[in-house]
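Q: You know discrete backbone vocabularies at least as well as I do. I have my own habits and do not want them to colour yours. No explanation is needed for now; the record alone will do.
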Amino acid sequence: MIELERPRDAGALLRDSLVVYIRHFWTFLALGALVVVPAELIVSGIGLEQLTASYDSTPSFAEIAIPSVVSYLVVAPLITAICVYALQSMSAGGSPGAREAIVRGFESFNPIFFAVLLAAAGVLVGAIVIVPGVYLFVRWYFVPQTVVLENARGPAALRASGRIVEGAWWRTFGLIVLVNVLAVMFAYVLGAPFIAAADSADRALWTLIGETIAGSLVQPFGALYSTLLYFDLKARKRAKLG
């Protein structure tokens, strides 16, 4: 059982996310792979022809941008929704409840996708001037959680996420940077042998395999971390109010 709505410092956020992740490693790996594998296969494997193409050490902008956009709009929000439901089940004293979490996560996808798409459009406009783009990215970081946990829809989900971050933007920014730096480092170390294999065999397939494994491992941990951070911010805000 895990207590969700309580303050956590950076160490506690990482520790509790890691404890939950390791304790139910195979469940969360399966949940991540359920979303990451088909997305990578369809987008990179078939769409960008990595299943059959030779290895290119200098991919084009499209080869970098397209998978990133799909990850931001589809993969990460869907895995987050599934992990939110899994955490709720655990907080009630049960197991992650993978089957129910998957069903409910997919049922939540439409409103999450629409809200995340609105956020992405705002961030993109803000990115014309870099600072507003970063500000909006952090402010709307918890859109998936507000859709699932607060039943917010569309612009209301963006406003709800903004209320969570309000008064704690810099702390939230720092904690987001921390987990993403760790995730990138882990993905780089994990992917290095696959990149070497792709270069040696001149087959992009190996990079596809490495990216799929890394995504399946990293995405669920990031979803757990962001959800615990959401509850941390809520608990701190509630404590300030009374």
In short: The chain has a mean pLDDT of 92. The first helix runs from residue 10 to 23. The CA atoms of residues 29 and 158 lie 29 Å apart.
